[in-house]
Amino acid sequence: MSSHIHSLASSTINTIQTFVQNQQQQLNSNHHLLHHHLISDNNNGISGGGGTGGVGMHNHHHHMNPHLTHHNVVDPNISSTEFQSNQWMYTLMDSSRVSTFLIPMLLIVYGSFRSLNMEQEAKQKEKEREKDGLLPSTSSSSSSSGDNNNVQTLDTMQALCLPLGASISLLVMFFFFDSMQMLFAICTAIIAAIALAFLLLPMCQYIMKPCTEKKKISLGICGRFTPAELVSFSLSVTIVCIWVLTGHWLLMDAMGMGLCVAFIAFVRLPSLKVSTLLLTGLLIYDVFWVFFSSYIFSSNVMVRVATKTAENPVGIVSKRFHLNGGKDVPKLSLPGKLIFPSLQNSGHFSMLGLGDIVMPGLLLCFVLRYDAYKRTLLNSADAGVPPPKHLNRFTYFHCSLIGYFFGLLTATVSSEVFKAAQPALLYLVPFTLLPLLTMAYLKGDLRRMWSEPFITTSLPKNLDV
């Protein structure tokens, strides 16, 4: 009897040991596949600066939540090759990636139309002054493109020197950031407050229009401002102050959006020649500092500068005067980039440099102004005749905007395929500039757009737009 019980117990123990070994082997297999998946994600990103010395597109994973790792374990019956081949497709549908596609395009469109509206308002004021006899009538008023003292138009020399100036600024921040971070933080906060006020101004004007007049309020030596301008500036200063105290990424994004819109609206490219020189120079600048800077400086200068955090001015003042209130003040990530956190993956976010929005945005602003200019010429040539239907069809602005989207898409896919930092302008410049040059050549506008596109000349009535 005892021998029977002993043999039964031995067989039971052997069965349990065999089951435990099988489960341990399966767990090790799943853990190895999960580890490979997480490392592939962490090595993924796009970096590039544009003209501001900021980072381009970059992916980050911080503090992976251990409670989420269970959902990342895949079925062992699915091959790792099949899983990896589809992984980049799932990454494109992440909320941070979708934001990286949509928000920059919206900022470019909004900034371009703000610039066009400013130009048209300047021309309208100029016509009103001519009617009142305050200004002499000139036949070449269109050549000025509505320029005024607030708008900066880049010339050929400035376009060539801009990448060089951006490189010098990048090196200054790389070597002297720790000793000059207080100056960087204060200057950034002041400039961002002014740019954010410009971004918020139309909303304030729309809200306050029914209850206020357009009379300006004098502030002494500061000038005269409308109530909407004062309210928008007050809101922007409040947002910047809250950002200094909290360092929240959403407020930093709002400041970055204001900088993008203001730069696109107030800086203009006069011709396709200047646009091509500027974007080509910035492409070389971007590729060099992302791909080759590590060979010279033993570090990726672009990424290092973009990811540096500055000491909070509140904390520095508190330490200087031995105050206890500055102990919990966070460090500040300067608004040279837009951050898009993921809603699906905790701790994951995408990052896009402001230069990758502003510099292609200047080109799109130029072609939008040219589309409107051609429309004006055609309407004046065919006065009283309704415009042809092809006016509402594919324009230069549509062509460049679609090219910009595909440039962002290609940059994202490249980062997923190569698992390495990619300069965003390497893809954005060819996808926006080459289709535009091709379309201008096919329509016969290339020579005019290349040199002096906004000088009034007599055009044929069958002008193609």
From TrEMBL:
Subcellular location: Endomembrane system
Record keywords, A-Z: Hydrolase, Membrane, Transmembrane, Transmembrane helix
Regions that span the bilayer: 98-117, 159-177, 183-204, 225-245, 251-269, 276-297, 349-370, 391-412, 424-442
GO cellular component, one term: Golgi-associated vesicle membrane
Any GO BP annotation: membrane protein proteolysis
Family annotation (Pfam families): Peptidase_A22B
GO molecular function terms attached to this record: aspartic endopeptidase activity, intramembrane cleaving
Region (Disordered) location: 121-148
Biased composition (Basic and acidic residues): 121-133
Topology of this chain in the membrane: Multi-pass membrane protein
Coiled coil region boundaries: none
PANTHER family hit by this protein: SIGNAL PEPTIDE PEPTIDASE (PTHR12174), SIGNAL PEPTIDE PEPTIDASE-LIKE 3 (PTHR12174:SF22)
Family (UniProt): Belongs to the peptidase A22B family.
Name assigned to this protein: Signal peptide peptidase-like 3
Organism of provenance: Dermatophagoides farinae (American house dust mite)
Chain's gene name: SPPL3
